[in-house]
Amino acid sequence: MPSQPDILAVDGGNSKVDVALVAVDGTLLGAGRAGGASFAPDDDQQGCIGALLQAVRRARANAGMDTGGGPLARLGMLCLAGADLPVDDRRILRALRSLRLADDIVLHNDTFAVLRAGTERSWGVGVVCGAGMNCSAVAPNGRTVRFAAIGEVSGDEGGGGWLGTQAIRAAVRGHDGRDPHTVLEREVPAFYCVRSVVAVLERIQTGRTDEYPAELAPLVFRCAAAGDAVSQRLVDRQADEVVAMVASAVRRLHLMRRDVHVVLGGGLFHDTEGRFLARVEAGIRAVVPAAVIRPLHVPPVVGAALLGLDRLGAARGAQDRIRSSLVRERLVTSREE
User: Fold this and answer.
1) What angle separates helix 86-99 from helix 45-63, to the nearest 10 degrees?
2) E strands within the chain?
């Protein structure tokens, strides 16, 4: 085992932080997972750094490495939710460099890890749709497209948080007669273990709930699958927003006539009923007929590792090696010693 890993690969999002220590030949030296860290400006930055460092410690222990000081790797390839605008990049890089995790630090939004993990190419479109939603795209010539993805002020809808909030809104408006009735009037209070939508609002207003709106997203999908028209419209709106982002990205990069790979990552794409994913695929192909839709089936940290290998000029065999070894089970079972 080398004394110093060549790559510290990190994928960080709302639900988890994954870390992999990788040699330039693609050997996985160690892996670790910790709780979520979005690195958004309004998030707990010290908590985010703490989660990142915990995942790093677990990866070091998993690799059998000591906890000595100094940079851990030659290259740190960190793909983090919250790195949305240039000002975010500068803020996060300042915090990362002070940690001295690697000799060289490269920061990307987490959508770039999803994109690289889901295709063998260096270009394409990557979408993350989990608690939040974002998209990035890279052209064959290296030109990139990013979205601000900071909420309504930047024209963004979508993600589990948005979907859950819309479910509460629909339940309230159905209950008071402003909108059509929906089973969400019954199911949302049941989720919060209260008897009425008014009680839900009281719990939210007084801060007496630990549940986040994103946790309601699976409920909306289940109600849509059961035939609730209001829930179906919400699921369709979410799908259409995915399509709108992808369509914008491919148009701006002039990829409409190409067989562009569109990689879909995040919890909302685990739609077992199929309505959501089918609408996304149909919408994308209406804009890019030759598009190859690729739901992501490997951990996004694989993409961060591959981006690191790309930057260091590693051979193709190194890419194959890390793809086969950096599996979800390795991350889940790793523990801090």
Assistant:
1) 50
2) 7-12, 16-22, 28-35, 73-80, 102-109, 124-129, 133-138, 144-146, 261-265, 292-295
- Domains of the chain as residue ranges with CATH: 7-118+298-333 (3.30.420.40), 120-297 (3.30.420.40)
The model carries a pTM of 0.91
Structure tokens at 130: 């989990």
Measure CA 133 to chain center: 7
Interval 203-262: pLDDT, tens = 989 888 766 788 999 999 999 999 999 999 999 999 999 999 999 999 999 999 999 999
Joined together, the tokens standing for residue 16 give: 């988890």
Rg of the chain (C-alpha set)? 21
Q: Which residue has the tokens 């969400």?
A: 184
Strands 261-265 and 124-129: parallel
Cα gap 101→292, rounded to integer Å: 36
Instruction: Please give the full DSSP string across 78-146, using - where no structure is assigned.
Output: EEETT--SHHHHHHHHHHHHHHT-EEEEEEEEHHHHHHHHT-SSS-EEEEEESSSEEEEEE-TTS-EEE
CA 218 to each of CA 107, 144, 159, 209: distance values in angstroms, whole numbers, following the listed order? 31, 32, 11, 18
Q: Which amino acid is at 198?
A: V
Block residue for tokens 């295709």: 119
Dihedral sign for Cα atoms in the order 152, 158, 159, 161: positive
| Cβ count near 311 (within 10 Å) | 13
- Can you tell me which residue has the tokens 């992808």? 246
| pLDDT 10s digits, 4-23 | 799 999 999 888 999 999 99
Cβ atoms of 11 and 112 closer than 8 Å: no
* Alpha carbons 191 and 184: distance in angstroms, whole number: 10
